[in-house]
Amino acid sequence: MRRAAIIGTGQTVYKTKRVDVNCAELIFEAARAALDQAGIEKEDLDAVVFASAPEAFEGVHAPDCWCADAAAAIGKPSLRIHTGGATGGSGALAGFTHVVSGLFDVVLVVAVQRVGESPDAQKILNTIWDPIYEKDFALNIINSCAQMAVRYMNKYGMTEEQMALVSVKNHLNAFNNPYAHLKLELSVEDVLQSRVLCWPIKLFDACPRSDGACAVVLAAEGRAEKYSRNPAWVLGVGASTDTYGTGDRMVDDEFDLADIGAFVRAVREAYKMAGIRNPRREINVAEIYAPFSNLEIASYEGLGFCEKGQGGKLIEDGVTRMDGDLPVNPSGGVQASNPIGATGLVRVAEAALQVMGQAGDRQVDGAKTAIATAAGGAAQFYTAMILGQEKP
Amino acid sequence: MSEKVAVVGVGMTKLEPRKNETLYDMIFEAASLALADAGMERKDLESVVLAASDLVDGVSISSMVTATAAGAYLKDEIKVADDGMFGLAMAYLRIRSGHFANSIVVGWSKCSQGSISKITNLNFDPFYHRPFALNLVTAGALQATRYADRYGVSEEEAARVVVKNRSNALDNPYACLRSEVAMDEVLSSRVLASPLKEMDLSHFCDGACALVLAGEDQARSLTEAPVWIRGLGWSTGTYYLGDQELAELGSLREAGQKAYAMAGIKVPAEEIDLAEVYDLTSYHQLMALEALDFCPPGQGGKFFAEGSLPINPSGGLISSHPYVASGLIRAAEGALQVSGRAEGRQVPQAELALAHGVSGLCYQKNCVVVLGR
Amino acid sequence: MNETVEIVEIPGKWDISYRYSAGLTASKFFAELKKGQRFLATKCSKCGRIYLPPRSFCERCFIKIDEWTPLGLEGTVETFTLVQDKFEGFPDPPYVVAYVRLDGADTAMPNFIEGLDLSDPKEALKKLKIGMKVKAVFKEQREGRVTDFVFKPL
Question: What is the pTM of this model?
């Protein structure tokens, strides 16, 4: 099977609202930066994958069509991927598929979200719910994830303090990231005292809304080595989709709502493909899609970094801090910046930068193998991508 | 190279207003039919590709509520927010990558539940375009005006397309509009936006379509008559209507050339046995025939009148247009034709079929597939 | 089990407000429409392509554009349509939507053409032609938007 590697990435600075550019211009910034880092021109591209999540945010139907020029897609095969919050991750996987299919050698993946275009973000997120059975119950992403947190606490005894540690870590890591949105020096007490949104999720446990775009260039083996001295090789990929109804995930043989079963399946696929048997040892750095503190803790277990229910202890022991054994979210993660549809691709870009040794102040020393994950819907869609320095 | 991926199963709902059902009922029907047709069960599926539009579905991230109806529970699933034909392209790439032995691709729309006019007005950016009463129809009208002017295309040449497509639909049990119309009926129908008359337009309806694709080995074990994807190509044009020659469907020409190159086709009019093209309007069907190189630019009307090539034996979009599903339905129809299962609308000795799907307005993105025995 | 079930249709409406960021380039263009009643196009320094409405990057050279060039008020109709039906969300017919390429621009931009007698559509269509010359006429009350002007036949 053909191999592929990431040879360049580009990001925009994440802010609540980028008033200086329209959506197309935002994409152009990221796309141009990715081409520059890869050392290529748009003529070198064979295809483009455009990733963006609910267009109710942009307020324009089919933003990929409107912004085709900015995505360097004109005259090229292009299509749009949309899997909710997992969009950026699915886009990366689709880009990988394009290259590995043998039909395309160099592919650009761009992802964007204009979260700041509407002041009514929750109204927009409310349009997700099935009008037949659920829309009337003021459901949104926050209270869905809060319900997962409660379930997890009940099953494994996770504490609010453990959740707070995640938030403290990520907001502090963000200071090392020139693109990050929320850079905050917080104490556990600060987090615990912050406004409760949907218990147990508090303000500082939650992610911000950020405008942003990200782009990644993938190239096939044979080409990747020509463009980059240290490309980030794709070692493994995986994806899995869970059932829609949160209520349908309460009874399961292996996983229940608290254990994020589909996430585990996606990650397992990726590990299998990459030949990874002991993730705790073989993964050096992780960029995971966790918009809320409790999801990062549950993800540690899903990633195989610890046993079930031990995620809280892992953060307490400092293992996932920048100075720990296995740093998680050196970029600050999703709690620092969340340009929804782009966020999953940002995880991939950050993981690539780590493996390519180009992560600047947030570089994890000796990072050889990294994993990037994305999550979408109400914890329904999951993707995972493993990158490494050595060609598989 | 051309026998790597095949269509091994086809499933379609009847295309009509389906007010008694939810989106997922409709999707489940199409997916189930396709799996049954392939002789497969859901457990055999390795990949699911969805094609849909949030705004048309009236639900953001509509794949949340619909994915499992398409068979995606605990499967590797991805959603393409483009016409269903692009979903087919994604499924094709997945199988070619060697990571998946098969994939289902499902596309759908329920046009009866919303306003296509308002939704497609939202395709236009609010800065330079949206205030100018631009939607799918009026933008299509701008394109048709340009085409008709450039080549002297008469309203009769366009009306002929409507008469023929509607007549073809009589033999298609899935079609929405199944009644003949006469030339003078079309010519005297109400002008909506010049030159487009009401009857020149595609007919929006509800429907879902699913195809099961499989790689060579599995395809041969599932069926004795796999329908091979011999050629596939897609391309993107500019969004700005004012930046291009609207009378030429440039990205369709590019997509067609790629598909033909892969399939080794040099003279489409001679080698293709039938074409299911995307007929957003009667004028667009003629433009598509030219861009697909069946005839020289401007000769679409003449070529169509000659009748040498069966075009849209299904009745096309003019008879049934479940928006996002329409391109995938063209592929489904092509597959049925090539496998000799098109019943009353069967084109005799159909060995090579072309199918065409479109995303975006004014044919900005096009995907073309060539299917063969 | 013989009772017929009444099918339910649940009404819904999306009521979402926006404040679209036009960006610096469009903002400058709009400001000039309002104050100067003038069209500013952008020009790519590499290929020389002149964009109106203006873009901040050239899609062909894929570089940023920062060169501005003013254009006149006259242009040519590249295509049009006479809308005769009421579309949901749109004005009452009849009206003319067209793409006009101002002299000197490489691209055309959309707007309404006013000042035509549309009472008899067939007659009106005899007068509307691709290639006809029109002139941009600015409104008295301008907001700094693309609707600050309309086109009228010369």
Answer: 0.94
